[in-house]
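Please review this one:
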Amino acid sequence: MKGKQSKVVLITGASRGIGREIAKTLALEKYQVIANYNTSEKEAMALKKELEERQCKIDIIKADVSKRKEIKHLIQCILVKYGRIDVLINNAGISNYKLYTEITDEDWNNVINTNLYSAFAVTQEVVPNMIHNKSGCIINISSIWGLVGASLEVIYSISKAGIFW
């Protein structure tokens, strides 16, 4: 990307697992990475340090993407600093290992709101900027468990199936 402005990419749930690896890969490819995290601050800080030591562009921003107010703040922070979001990767995800008969309403809401609602809401907040710029890419990360189900992960499987369909 020599001579070009770096593309700005937002990755939700980027402090661990697949999100972390996506953030590392794109940062090394010279994207301006915004790594979102909620509870894994230590891991997010370690990712930032690792990538900055390799002269990569990365910002980390804490936001609970299950909450619209925090999503709006996240997007606003990015747009104020960079003026655009070129790529959105909806990756945030949590699970809850319980028998179906033991799942509470709170369990259901936490997983569905983090895994499924966040993909809808973050996309909805980012799309106006992409439309304005007449450019953008949105990637939603799901799971094989959304197709075949997983033992003791009923809510997770349902939320990931919702992203597939």
Remarks:
- The helical segments are 17-28, 41-53, 68-82, 105-133, 145-148, 154-164.
